[in-house]
Amino acid sequence: RRAFLLAKDFLAGDDRRELAVVERDLAALPPVGALPRASIEELLATPAPFRAWLEGLAPDAPAGFAVRCDDCPVARFLGSQGYGADCAPSSIVTDDGPTITPPTWTGAFMRAIDALGKGHRVTPAEALRLLAQAEG
Known about the structure:
The chain is mostly helical. It is 50% helix and 10% strand. The chain contains seven helices and five strands, in the order ααααβαβββαβα.
């Protein structure tokens, strides 16, 4: 928005009118923090958002830890989306209150992660491999 305001001083005629339209449209947008976030159900409806998050992690960064309901890869993913949650294969308990039954792929993925052993540091590559198996 600031760039548009600065550019206005250098524009004339049609360009200035077009800028006025853009300014009006920008003013109608809600502040970034006010945009609604996707629900946990929407985030986990398919593995795609979770996979994209895993693929965006640095290779040496932990994706999470096995048998840690508040620090497993799914809990970390939800945390990155603004949700605090304790995750288990059969339920996700959010800090906001509701308990959610996770989709089948999520439960299968969490069981595979937990089978690695308590406290196992899960790498993004390991999580992606287990996710592919869970999608089966």
